[in-house]
Specification:
The chain is globular. The protein has two domains: about 35 residues, no CATH class; about 170 residues, Rossmann fold, CATH 3.40.50. The relative contact order is 0.14. The protein is an alpha/beta fold and about 220 residues long. It is about 40% helix and about 10% strand.
Length: about 220
C-alpha cells in the first residue's frame, strides 16, 4: 500500500507479461480504484504533533494555531503526550486523541487500541522495529493513526509539528522518534508537513496552503 501511494498518473508500469494480462493490471486497477481517490480526499483534519521537548514559546503558537484551525472546521489528530501534543489539544475542541493504550498519560479517549494494520505499517516504516519493546511498538502504531485516521484509510490533510531537526521530508529526519516516523509516513503519502522549527514563515505557509489548495475552494 505504501509503494502504491508513490504512483501517479504519469507513472509507467513495465512487466514482461505484457501483452497478456498480468499483475501489472492488478496494480493499475488497485491504484485507480483505491489509491487515486484517497489522493484527492478531503478529510478536514490535520495532525498536530511534535517533540515532548517543544519550547514553551512554540507550544503557545501551537495552541493558538489549533484554536484558529478549530474555528475553520478542522479536526485535530494528536497523541495525548506531553509537549506538542498537549499544546495542540489545549487549543482544539474538535479533536481525535489516539492513545497507544487505555489510560496513557492519564488521558481519556475513545481511541485506545491501534489497529493491526497500524502495527503492520509501523513495522515497515520503523528501521529498528524488532528491537522495540511492546510499549514502544504500541506508541509507534498509534502515530500512524494520527496520519491515516482511525480507519487507516483517511489521510490527514496536512501535518503541523516541531522537531529539533526541522524536518518536513523523510530524508531530512535526524532521528527515528515518533514524530520523525510520522513525518516519514506523511511524506510517503504526499501529505504536506509544516515544521514550526523553521520559524515564523511556517505559519504563513500554512495559511497559504489552506487558502489556495484546490480541495478547499467552494
Amino acid at each position: 500500500m505504501l509503494k502504491l501511494r508513490e504512483l501517479t498518473e504519469q507513472s509507467q508500469l513495465v512487466c514482461y507479461c505484457r501483452p497478456a494480462q498480468c499483475h501489472g493490471d492488478i496494480i493499475a486497477r488497485v491504484w485507480r480504484d483505491r489509491i487515486k481517490p484517497m489522493q484527492h480526499q478531503r478529510s478536514l483534519s490535520y495532525a498536530g504533533i511534535g517533540s515532548r521537548n517543544t519550547p514553551p514559546e512554540v507550544m503557545a503558537i501551537m495552541t493558538k494555531l489549533a484554536r484558529r484551525l478549530d474555528e475553520l472546521g478542522f479536526v485535530l489528530r494528536s497523541g495525548g503526550a506531553d509537549g506538542a501534543d498537549s499544546a495542540f489539544e489545549d487549543g482544539a475542541k474538535n479533536k481525535q486523541v489516539f492513545l497507544p493504550w487505555e489510560g496513557f498519560n492519564g488521558r481519556e479517549s475513545e481511541f485506545t487500541s491501534p489497529l493491526s494494520e497500524a502495527f503492520r505499517v509501523a513495522e515497515i516504516v520503523h528501521d529498528g522495529w524488532l528491537y522495540l519493546k511492546p510499549g514502544a511498538q504500541k506508541l509507534m502504531a498509534r502515530n500512524n493513526h494520527q496520519i491515516l485516521g482511525a480507519d487507516m484509510r483517511t489521510p490527514a490533510d496536512f501535518v503541523v509539528c516541531w522537531t529539533p531537526d526541522s524536518a518536513e521530508k523523510s530524508h531530512q529526519r535526524g532521528s527515528t522518534g515518533g514524530t520523525g516516523q510520522a513525518i516519514d509516513l506523511a511524506d510517503r503519502f504526499g501529505i504536506p508537513v509544516f515544521n514550526l522549527a523553521k520559524g515564523g514563515a511556517t505559519i504563513e505557509r500554512i495559511r497559504e496552503w489552506v487558502q489556495h489548495n484546490p480541495a478547499y475552494k467552494n
